[in-house]
Recover the amino acids of this structure.
């Protein structure tokens, strides 16, 4: 089964040096590497944009851009954005504020029956309302 990977996990693996990872972060990066080897990783364009934003030098940008190009963006269409708006409304009705990027990730994962791999605690709250599955590192 495919897994939609959130910015937070990609960032650990691609924007942080391995020696700067905490003991809790190392299994997350190892799990991402395993998912990549299994060909199960999926990304959307807004996650790519988030990862590439704020890069300090053109050389660092090019290196990260080139690494991410190994992962094509999941094609999205109008129905994905409409479903994201509905999901945002559903969360807001339950008293939960959402970000545009997060709710699009939720909507894409939900429509494709994919779990989301993230370190962002907001996704656990979204999952309780939207009946999403979250991916966790395997033992």
């Amino acid at each position: 089964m495919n897994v939609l990977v959130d910015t937070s996990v990609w960032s650990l693996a691609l924007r942080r040096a391995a020696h700067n990872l905490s003991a809790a972060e190392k299994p997350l990066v190892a799990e991402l590497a395993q998912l990549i080897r299994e060909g199960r990783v999926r990304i959307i364009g807004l996650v790519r944009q988030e990862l590439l934003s704020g890069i300090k030098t053109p050389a660092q940008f090019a290196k990260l851009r080139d690494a991410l190009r190994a992962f094509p963006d999941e094609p999205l269409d109008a129905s994905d954005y409409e479903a994201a708006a509905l999901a945002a409304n559903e969360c807001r009705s339950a008293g939960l504020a959402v970000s545009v990027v997060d709710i699009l990730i939720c909507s894409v994962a939900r429509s494709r029956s994919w779990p989301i791999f993230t370190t962002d605690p907001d996704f656990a709250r979204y999952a309780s309302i939207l009946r999403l599955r979250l991916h966790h590192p395997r033992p």
Remarks:
- The first strand starts at residue 3 and ends at 5.
